[in-house]
Amino acid sequence: MTYRIKVPPRSLPVDEAHMVSSLEHQLIGLKEYRWPLLVGCALLVLVGAGVWGVLWYEGQAANKAHDIEREATIHYFTRPGNDPKKAENNLAQAITLYTRIADEYPRTPSAPIALFSLGNALVESNQVDSAIAAYTRFLSAYGSTAPLASLVQQKLAYAYLSKGDRDQAAKSYTAILDNPASANRDQAMFELARLEESRSKMDEALKRYQDLIKTYPNSPFASEAAIREKIFDARKAHETTPAASGSPAVPKTPAKP
To answer: pLDDT value at position 242?
Structure first.
């Protein structure tokens, strides 16, 4: 007698059948939303290309600005001392190149340095008003928190002093003191005290000197402030000491009639 092996009918497991059904639904969904998906992918590609283009352009601009800054710096620092005409020409070229960086590449890392150097070069060429404009432009564009901000404020104060504008110079020194991150606060405090002294505000000047000695005892400006404080004390002692009495004057004998 022969036996027939019974083969069970093929049927997908429940989980596998469910998976096939889910894949079919997903494929149908993809067909229905293929155009929005294609548009979304195209937009992503365009945005990525735009970001890459911006980064590439900014990199090219930064490299160009750096090259111009290097050329300007060479002109600025290689002025011959024995040839005034050549030195003046080099300074003029440096001013032109620094101005170009500030105007054409304001968002590059070279721009703040260029504006600072531009102000310095303009001061040396006796263009004080233009130098003040360059320093002010630096502070307006890059804020008071920029690494060079406190030094720019100090240079700005010097420029105002060269014009005789002591009020604006005092404001610049005060701006340095108001910024705790300023590395030159001790010098600004000393310069402000001297400025107050030149304006005959002796009490305010003395207070500045005393604050400098107390706050920055190891500063080289503290020793200068100590000397000024002693001069103030000696002056006050001299003013309060009564005049030494001399020999009494002999009264004149009235003339006989």
So the answer is: 59
Closest CA to 200 of 230, 173, 235: 235
In tens, the pLDDT along 205-231 reads 999 999 999 999 999 999 999 999 999
Give CA torsion, residues 209, 135, 76, 82, to 10 deg. -60
Distance (Å, whole) CA 186 – CA 48: 50
Helices 202-215, 185-198: axis angle to 10 degrees equals 160
Three-class secondary structure of residue 51 per DSSP? helix
Residue type, 193: A
Site of tokens 């991150």: 181
pLDDT tens digits, one per residue of 147-170: 799 999 999 999 999 999 999 999
Residue type, 86: K
Contact status, residue 118 vs residue 99, Cβ threshold 8 Å: yes
pLDDT digits (tens, 9 = 90+) for 226-251: 999 999 888 888 877 655 444 455 45
pLDDT at site 23: 60
**Neighbouring residues of 60: CB distance < 8 A, sequence distance ≥ 6:** none
Q: Retrieve residue 109's tokens.
A: 């890392």
Which of helix, strand or coil describes residue 97? Answer: helix
* Structural contact between residues 171 and 179, judged by C-beta atoms closer than 8 angstroms: no
